[in-house]
Amino acid sequence: MANRFVQKLSGLVDLTARDIVALEAATARPRNYAARKDLIREGDETGAMLVVLEGWLCRYKILPNGTRQIMAFLMPGDACDLHIKLLAEMDHSIQAVAPARVATVSRTEMQTMMQDHPNIARGMYTAQLVDEGIMRAWIVSMGRRSSVERVAHLICELYLRARTIGLTDDGDFALPLSQIVLADALGMTPVHINRVLKELRLAGAMALSRGSVTIIDAGKLVAIAGFDENYLHRRLRQMT
Amino acid sequence: MANRFVQKLSGLVDLTARDIVALEAATARPRNYAARKDLIREGDETGAMLVVLEGWLCRYKILPNGTRQIMAFLMPGDACDLHIKLLAEMDHSIQAVAPARVATVSRTEMQTMMQDHPNIARGMYTAQLVDEGIMRAWIVSMGRRSSVERVAHLICELYLRARTIGLTDDGDFALPLSQIVLADALGMTPVHINRVLKELRLAGAMALSRGSVTIIDAGKLVAIAGFDENYLHRRLRQMT
DNA sequence: CGAAGGGTTGATCAATTTCAATCGCGGTGG
DNA sequence: CCACCGCGATTGAAATTGATCAACCCTTCG
Fold it and tell me: Distance between CA atoms of B159 and B214, rounded to whole angstroms?
């Protein structure tokens, strides 16, 4: 099975065979985590950078009133928190939302690799910029989109991200997220998520069941979401 | 008047006299922008990094339905989009919300400075991590806080950020944001912002008028917001 | 002096949450 | 093997939050 980290970076920059060897070596000893297992908790001292090879993680925070907000999903190929060692402690937690295989790369290891492999450095910085764009898109969704638009937008985003790392099968892809997790990510109640999903299904746009999404009518879904993929910056090869 | 960029970075890392000279040289030729002036528009080719010296900017995006969402405020000392040249085009716009004085630093200039001044490099990466934490906090606010909590939380954040660069005067600070701008930042309507501000004033927590905020009872405001300053990472000196 | 842009308030409306109940499924212990 | 349990999914009805619509006021600025 392909190394998703290599696959993702090679979608952002050109990698040489040497670069690929280095990336594979750095992620050669992954660990497995069960769903719902916390990898890092808010308040923990900062540690190594994580690289997701299989499965899904999320960043989240629990509020004083007990509600939870998910701020990001990390799927295979995604890395989190380059340079994180510069901060003293984590301001949020990271959890596996589905069974995951995750490699850890220490800051020094990463720094050495980035010094020796400028393509990798460029790729990492680019990935970080894209992740920031994704966060901004989430802010926009939460602030100014209705619940239906919000759900549709998130599915569009996740579908495209999954597709660039080869995890989609035509209009289908595995989405190992319960409606409760979706609710925590979109700032809604599980009850309302359920109604919105029904609406999208009846509209013939998409259907979610047993851990996988079927895009029934992509055009319709994109129209409902008001989705513009520019923030995912998928056309990078031609830049300097 | 102190160079706010220097002031901000020296709150994150120790700077030598040489570092400070380099930073001052890099920001020596700022330009002035009137309120509401766009510095960068969505779709523009990416350019230099901006450094705010005086005044306030915001990042924002206009949706198809004409509404606007602000995703970040940039105050004096804040820099935006280190490495931005790695992306082909901007996925959002940046505008002055108040009259601003802004320096631009090209990517090569910045790279040279970071190579020659490791402290500056550490400071820039740290600042970027903090900015990401701020974005995540905004996602949490939009997703899981009520309108009163949201307003209170934003004011707490802006107050602390302003204080670390020396822009506060006891419980007072200049907040050059109209209620309309606040509404665009918090995903609410101006009408509702107005009612929430009234509520906070009547509760004796804070008051906003003519471009400045007075924190009447900080404890009360923090309690209403459920504010935890950890995400601003203000105690960094002791790290490696 | 007049116009424009914010700020303020009231009344009504719509979206989403809350509360409550039921259903279905996979896993577990007997 | 089967009854039971717990969690997620689903649906209905009531309650609440925040949006919308519509004035009016005040200050600033040309």
Answer: 10
Instruction: Please state, in angstroms and rounded to a whole number, the distance separating the CA atoms of residues A118 and A105.
Output: 17
Return d(Cα B129, Cα B123) in angstroms, integer: 10
Report residues of chain B scoring pLDDT below 50.
236-240
Question: A221 versus B234: which is more confidently predicted?
Answer: A221
Letter for the amino acid at A232? L
> Could you give the residue ranges of the DSSP H alpha helices within chain B?
4-10, 17-26, 107-116, 118-144, 147-164, 179-186, 190-202, 218-225
B192: helix, strand or coil: helix
Q: Which helix (H) or strand (E) holds B93?
A: strand B93-96
Residue B98 CA, distance from chain mean position = 12
Q: What are phi and psi of A30, to 5 degrees?
A: -75, 160
* A186 at interface of B, judged by CB pairs closer than 8 A: yes
Token duo for residue B132: 């990401």
d(CA B177, CA A207): 43
Determine, for residues B135 and A135 on separate chains, whether the beta-carbon distance falls below 8 Å. yes
Res A235 pLDDT > 80 = no
| φ/ψ of residue A78, rounded to 5 | -75, 140
In the structure encoding, which two tokens stand for residue A234, read together?
Answer: 């998928």
Q: CA-to-CA distance for A39 and B117, rounded, in angstroms?
A: 34
Backbone φ, ψ for residue A166 (5° rounding) = 75, 30
Please list the helix, strand and coil fractions of chain A in percent, rounded to the nearest 5, in that order: 45, 20, 35
Of A59, A63, A128, the CB nearest to B136: A59
Rounded-to-integer distance, Cα B77 and Cα A145, Å: 32
CA-nearest residue of chain B to A183?
A: B143
pTM, full prediction: 0.95
Instruction: Give the integer Cα–Cα distance in Å for B148 and B131.
Output: 23
Q: Give the C-alpha separation, B186 to B171, whole Å.
A: 22
Report chain B residues whose CB lies below 8 A from the CB of A92.
Answer: 133, 136, 231
Which residues in chain A have Cβ-Cβ distances shorter than 8 Å to B143? 69, 142, 186-187
Q: What spatial distance separates the first Cα and last Cα of chain A, rounded to whole Å?
A: 31
Are B104 and B50 spatial neighbours (Cβ–Cβ below 8 Å)? yes
DSSP 8-state assignment for residue A34: -
Mean pLDDT, range A49-75, rounded to an integer: 96
Residue B89 in 3-state DSSP?
Answer: strand
